[in-house]
Structure formats: structure tokens, C-alpha cells
Write a structure and sequence with these properties.
single chain
């Protein structure tokens, strides 16, 4: 399917627009676009283009990629956006002739200069979720989560396969310009990465797709209820699974409601308290999330978690939860590190959850929490949900940290590492602030109404009573028309 660059690019965006206008069979929110381009791609490696309106499922996508990687370059660059839909290209890609407004100049340039390309406008998003796992199995190498700065320090070899993954964000909200700016920034990242690859003179295969659709994507509540994106394959017929999950959560709440928190003592004094109604970890393997519930091993009547390695003093606290046989890892540790210090601005001491670490097989996955999880040193910290993936309060330490392959979730979380008295939690500082969006909207609406009322009163006060009136019994008032 090798053609001239300009003609190929016109066909790409024309296909996007045509498929959008004709409509996709099934639910349009279940598909994401996928673009593949490469250098030194032989003609026999080019798969046939997808038929308009056809949805590419996981097996067919694997067939396309196998043909591509069989004779093409084995250095794979994967640009994996959080969300993306066909409409993003029609809205922001200049598909209606206004190319000067396109936010994808670097992507278009890459498609023009490539020896060949493949465009799949409608790929089932579960298939795109399994993309990393399939590439990993085909190339026989683990994915490296990179950014343009670290890529420049990496030396690639054409004879050794490499899977480089660049995570790109996406934002959709009430301001459409926000999505446009984020897509433009993602295109700049693509340009930087391809520029570095060009300087290294290493042939590569590049892919650009997303994990979820950006238009009409499944709601976070549904995603959380089903336990991850992969399980949405059973959304239409998974009523029994959802009912079993609700029943398990209900029994879990009844079971854990009366249990004491995890308590670590230094001598006879309690110095760390931890409580969570639910605690689970998940790892990404072969494109799907595998979860493990740590709640029964941590909390409950008669449960005594292993706290070897824990420590505490006046400024530092470290709680280590030791487990066995977690997601295939014989020895598994969950470490929570807290600290307290005096802040001059607030003139008081604050405690922060500096990090949450997962230690397994001599590997550490580190999540930072100091920016979001904090409380006055005299109080405990409480939050309904502390996770690393949905409205995250825990974020990976760096883009290439192993934490990007993990998810940590605390439900009804409460922790205190300092000033514990009587083995009980102190007053809880809740993560939900007083000024919620609803309160701010009410305040702004009230302020606007007060301003309108004040302006109206001011205008009324500027009115002046006439000093002359008509007397019905006397002559009419005559107003001269000339000077």
C-alpha cells in the first residue's frame, strides 16, 4: 500500500471523515483509531487496508502486527494515549480543509516521510489494551516506559528488539480548547521522539493509539465496578459477575466494619495506625489487569499481619506489611513511609505520606503521595478513596518507574503515624475540602446576583424627580423648541 506521502495523508483523513459520516456498526464509543508507520517496510509486509465500517478485533489486529513486524524493523515505538476517538482527528486534524488549524503537524509529517503506513480507524479498545502484551510476546522483550529526555540517553541497536512506550495524556471537559492544547502537546512529544530516533539512524516501527475512547467512554463508576477496562468485555452479559461483585463488597463491609486497625508498637507505645475497608493491588500483564485483594491478609478478626521492618520516631514513620504469594511473587511487601516537619507558612507541623512502595523480587515500585496525602501532625488522615489510577492521589515516581505497571487502591483509608494516644486514631482530617464545586457555584451565583441587585439599586438612586408638573386647571406647560 505504498503511495506518495501527500496522497496517503489525504486518504487517511478522508477515511476518518467518511467513516464518521457513515457511522460505525455497533456502539461507536467502543472503538479507538490506530496508526502504524515505519521505515524500510517491504511491500510484502503491508497488510490490506481495513474495509470502511469494519471494526478490527484483537485477533485481526494481532495478525496485522505480526505481518508488520515479521519483516519490518523490530524497534517499536508505541505512543499510547489515555483516550482518543475518531472525532479528535475530524475536530482538530484539519479534516475539513483548514490544515493551518491542525494540531497534528508532526504526525502528518511522519506519515508523509514514512515508506508505508497503515490506518485502522476503528479498533476495538480491548484489542488496543492488549497491544503491549502482544508486542512484548512477539518481540521477546519487556516494555520500557520512556520520555523524550531519557530516550536521548538510550542507545538502540537495529539487531536487538526494543519496545519503547510513551504515555500521552488526554483531557476532555467543558472547555474544548483544553483538549486541543493537550493534543497539540502530545504531537510535540511525538515530534521530539521521532527526531531523536532520526538522529540515532535506527529503523523503527511506530504505533499511535489509545487505551479508551474519548467520546462517550465508559464511566469511571462502571469501570471501577467491573474491576478494570478488560472486564468491560462482559458488560453486556456480565450481570451475574456484577451481582457477585456487589455481594462480595457488601459482605466485606459487614465483615470489616468491626475490626481493629493495623497497629505497630515501638515498645509499649503505639506509634502507627492503619485502617482500610478495602486494600488491593493490580499488575498489568499481557494487556490485562490482574488483581489481588490484600484485605483478608491485613485486616480482620484473628488476622495478625507481619510488620517486620517497620519503624518510627519523632519525624519518620515506616509501616511495612509483609505478604506471601501475591500475583506470582513469593515475597511481597507494601511499605508506607510518613514524615512530619514544621512549615513556616502555616506555623505548624504537618505529617505527609511521602511514598507507597511495592517491593517484590528485588524490585521496587514507588508511588509519591506527599502532594495529596497530608494532615496536621496532631491529626490522622482519612479519605474515602486513595488510589493510583482513578482520581489518583498516588502517582508513580517517574515515567519509567515500575509503578506504571501497578495499581494500588485503598478504600475508606485512614492512617496516623505520629502523636497516637491510647491506641486510637486522633481527630481525622478528611481529604474532602469544605469548598466543593457545588459550594463554589453557589457562592459565585450569589455574588453575581448581589452585583446585579447593587447595580439596579444604584441606577434607581440616580433617578431625579421632575421639578415642574402639569396643572389640569391651568395653562399647559409650553416647552420652547428654539434657543
Amino acid at each position: 500500500m505504498a503511495t506518495t506521502g501527500t496522497l496517503r495523508l489525504q486518504r487517511i483523513f478522508s477515511a476518518f471523515l467518511l467513516l464518521l459520516l457513515l457511522g460505525m456498526p455497533g456502539r461507536c464509543e467502543e472503538q479507538v483509531p490506530l496508526l502504524v508507520w515505519t521505515h524500510e517496510w517491504t511491500a510484502q509486509a503491508s497488510p490490506p487496508p481495513a474495509v470502511a465500517g469494519h471494526i478490527v478485533e484483537q485477533q485481526q489486529l494481532a495478525s496485522y502486527l505480526d505481518k508488520t513486524l515479521k519483516t519490518g524493523p523490530r524497534n517499536v515505538v508505541l505512543f499510547l494515549q489515555d483516550k482518543m476517538s475518531l472525532e479528535d482527528f475530524t475536530l482538530y486534524g484539519g479534516a475539513f480543509g483548514n490544515k493551518q488549524d491542525s494540531v497534528f503537524p508532526n504526525l502528518e509529517s511522519a506519515l508523509r516521510s514514512s515508506s508505508s503506513s497503515l490506518v485502522l480507524p476503528a479498533v476495538s479498545w480491548p484489542a488496543s489494551n492488549a497491544l503491549i502484551g502482544h508486542l512484548q510476546d512477539h518481540l521477546g522483550t519487556s516494555p520500557l516506559y520512556m520520555d523524550p529526555e531519557t530516550l536521548s540517553q538510550l542507545r538502540l541497536n537495529a539487531s536487538s528488539p526494543a519496545l519503547l512506550v510513551f504515555r500521552l495524556p488526554y483531557y476532555i471537559g467543558s472547555d474544548l480548547m483544553s483538549a486541543k492544547e493537550v493534543l497539540s502537546g502530545n504531537d510535540e512529544v511525538i515530534g521530539q521522539v521521532l527526531s531523536v530516533m532520526k538522529t540515532q539512524s535506527v529503523p523503527y516501527t511506530a504505533l499511535y493509539t489509545a487505551l479508551r475512547p474519548s467520546r462517550g467512554a465508559p464511566s469511571p463508576a462502571v469501570d471501577a465496578a467491573l474491576g478494570g477496562g478488560r472486564s468491560l468485555l462482559q458488560a453486556r452479559g456480565g450481570y451475574r459477575d456484577r451481582e457477585r461483585e456487589r455481594e462480595r463488597q457488601r459482605k466485606g463491609k459487614e465483615r470489616t466494619g468491626i475490626y481493629a486497625p493495623v497497629e505497630f508498637k515501638e515498645g509499649d507505645n503505639t506509634c502507627i495506625l492503619l485502617w482500610a475497608q478495602g486494600l488491593s493491588v493490580s499488575i498489568l500483564r499481557s494487556g490485562r489487569w490482574e488483581s489481588h485483594d490484600l484485605t483478608p491478609s491485613t485486616f480482620g478478626e484473628g488476622v495478625t499481619p507481619k510488620l517486620e521492618g517497620s519503624s518510627c520516631d519523632k519525624t519518620k514513620a515506616r509501616l511495612v506489611l509483609n505478604y506471601e504469594n501475591v500475583l506470582g511473587h513469593r515475597n511481597f511487601k507494601l511499605l508506607l513511609s510518613l514524615s512530619q516537619r514544621h512549615y513556616k507558612v502555616s506555623a505548624r507541623r504537618w505529617s505527609t505520606l511521602d511514598s507507597v512502595e511495592l517491593e517484590y523480587d528485588s524490585t521496587k515500585a514507588t508511588f509519591n503521595g506527599s502532594r495529596s496525602v497530608y494532615a496536621p501532625a496532631e491529626y490522622s488522615y482519612r479519605c474515602q478513596s486513595v488510589t493510583s489510577f482513578q482520581w489518583p492521589l498516588l502517582v508513580p515516581r517517574s515515567p519509567k518507574d515500575p509503578a506504571n505497571q501497578w495499581r494500588v487502591s485503598f478504600e475508606d483509608f485512614q492512617i496516623q503515624g505520629f502523636n497516637v494516644k491510647g491506641g486510637e486514631f486522633s481527630y481525622a482530617s478528611d481529604c474532602a475540602g469544605f469548598f466543593s464545586p457545588g459550594i463554589w457555584m453557589g457562592l459565585m451565583t450569589s455574588l453575581l446576583m448581589v452585583l446585579v441587585l447593587t447595580y439596579g439599586l444604584h441606577m434607581i438612586m440616580q433617578l431625579h424627580t421632575m421639578d415642574r408638573f402639569d396643572d389640569p386647571k391651568g395653562p399647559a406647560i409650553s416647552v420652547p423648541q428654539s434657543d
